[in-house]
Design goal:
Blueprint lengths: L1 H30 L6 H15 L2 H10 L3 H9 L5 H13 L8
Helix pairs in contact: 1-2, 1-3, 1-5, 4-5
């Protein structure tokens, strides 16, 4: 019986890692991109839309176990440079959370 719980726990950890990767890639595309190709420009536009959206962004943050309010504060702060926004978002994503929220 305990193996079943252990497997479910590991699955939740894998899901969190997957969605943290999604957030990290979106942050990279939105705030670190100096696009040279049309594809990079499209990725930039998509990432910007993602951070402006409500439902998709909140869902991904929830599945990644990351505070979406804190990330929104960073994204909307006009005093922070783009590359600094990326660094701060990556710091939030990389913080260790011991609790599983799903």
């Amino acid at each position: 019986m305990s193996e079943n719980y252990y497997e479910k726990y590991l699955e939740l950890i894998r899901i969190q890692k997957l969605f943290k990767s999604v957030l990290a890639l979106a942050a990279k595309d939105a705030f670190c991109c100096r696009f040279k190709t049309k594809k990079e420009k499209n990725n930039f536009n998509d990432a910007q839309e993602f951070f402006e959206s409500f439902f998709d962004f909140e869902l991904v943050c929830r599945l990644a176990n990351v505070d979406c309010v804190e990330i929104k504060k960073i994204v909307q702060n006009t005093k922070i440079q783009q590359c600094q926004k990326y660094k701060e978002i990556m710091f939030l994503i990389s913080q260790k959370n011991n609790k599983i929220i799903i």
